[in-house]
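**Discrete fold encoding**
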Amino acid sequence: MRSKLSLTAWIFLGLAAAVAVSAIALSGLALFRRHSRQARLSQVAKLGQPTQVDGVATVQELAEPWSSKTFIFHRPETKEDISSIVIRLPDSARDQPGSYWAFSMHPLLGKCQLEYITDLQKLSDDYRFQAKHPMVGDPCSRAVFDPLQMADLASGNWARGAIVKGYAFRPPLGIEIRIQSDQLVAAKME
């Protein structure tokens, strides 16, 4: 017996199936990456190798809200050196790790280096985005990320730097900051 669905209905069903398959594939990839990373980290711990930590700034260097400092994060799992930045967030105590946002300056997909934009006129002119505080921008895609907003990830986790304009796969890859004495230490990248 032949189906009585219209051509438009068949196209819609095909697109819906493709979207569902893509979502399942992306979720599987995220889960695979997470488990692979955990396995590598546990293997390193078993070997008794110390985890390398990088001091990136002092608390005094980032005393003012919205101040920032670029640094190179060394990723031990892949032996990569990654251009990164740490930003002091406003309205928080400077001796608390949550007062800082550190992230990779390279977007997950794409070749342009992200830029931390404190000049609100530049945001307006170059990104066509009106802001009341500094933002992070991708000069290739013109996506804008808000340091004060959190975003839901496909894995169910949250990440700082919600996309407030344009399109991007996700917010920038975050780097955990710890405070040891007066030093900000880049502990690990997500």
In short: Residues 39-53 have pLDDT under 50 and may be disordered. Residues 1-49 form one domain.
